UniProtKB/TrEMBL annotation:
Upper taxonomic lineage: Bacteria, Deltaproteobacteria, Bradymonadales, Lujinxingiaceae, Lujinxingia
GO biological process: rRNA 5'-end processing
Major subcellular location class: cytoplasm
Native source species: Lujinxingia litoralis
Database matches in SMART domains: YqgFc
Protein name in the entry: Putative pre-16S rRNA nuclease
C-alpha cells in the first residue's frame, strides 16, 4: 500500500531527531532519536525509516542564521545528507529531499517540553524528535495553506 507519508529530520551534532506524518500528511508525530556515532550508521538508519514508513518526502531542517544565510552547521547537515543519499541508493530507495528553514525549532521544542513539565533528562532525550516534528509540521502547514489558496 502506497502512502503519502513524510519524515521530518533534525540533524544535530550527536543525534538526529526523526518525526513522521500521519498517512494523510496532516500531523507530525515523533518517531525516534538516532544516536550518530558516525554519519554512515545514522544515514543507514534514516534510510531504514524511509522504507518502513514508505515515505515519499524527507523534510530536513536546514540551519540558517537569523539573517537567513546558511549557518555554520550546514556542512554537518550536507555531510549527513550525502551519506543518507548513498544509503538510500544502496537499498534501491527513492525519496524527495526538501530543505526547510529550521531557525528556532530546537528552542521552540525545548519551550514546549518545559511547558509540558517534562523532566530535564527526558527533555534531553526528546528535544531532537520534537524539533523534527516542528520542521515537518511547518512544511505540511505550508503545503495545506498553498493548497487552500489554489
Amino acid at each position: 500500500m502506497s502512502t503519502n507519508r513524510m519524515l521530518g529530520v533534525d540533524v544535530g551534532t550527536r543525534r538526529v531527531g526523526v518525526a513522521a506524518s500521519d498517512p494523510l500528511g496532516l500531523m507530525a508525530m515523533p518517531v525516534e532519536t538516532i544516536e550518530v556515532r558516525n554519519v554512515r550508521q545514522g544515514a543507514v538508519r534514516l534510510a531504514e525509516l524511509v522504507a518502513h514508513y514508505e515515505a515519499a518526502i524527507v523534510v530536513v531542517g536546514w540551519p540558517l542564521d537569523m539573517k537567513g544565510r546558511e549557518g555554520i552547521a550546514v556542512g554537518r547537515v550536507r555531510s549527513f545528507l550525502e551519506g543518507f543519499e548513498r544509503a538510500l541508493r544502496a537499498t534501491g530507495g527513492q525519496v524527495e529531499v526538501v530543505r526547510w528553514d529550521e531557525r528556532l525549532t530546537t528552542s521552540a521544542a525545548e519551550r514546549s517540553l518545559i511547558k509540558a513539565d517534562v523532566s530535564r533528562q527526558r527533555r534531553k532525550e526528546a528535544v531532537d524528535q520534537i524539533a523534527a516534528c516542528h520542521i515537518l509540521q511547518g512544511y505540511m502547514d505550508r503545503l495545506r495553506i498553498e493548497a487552500e489558496r489554489g
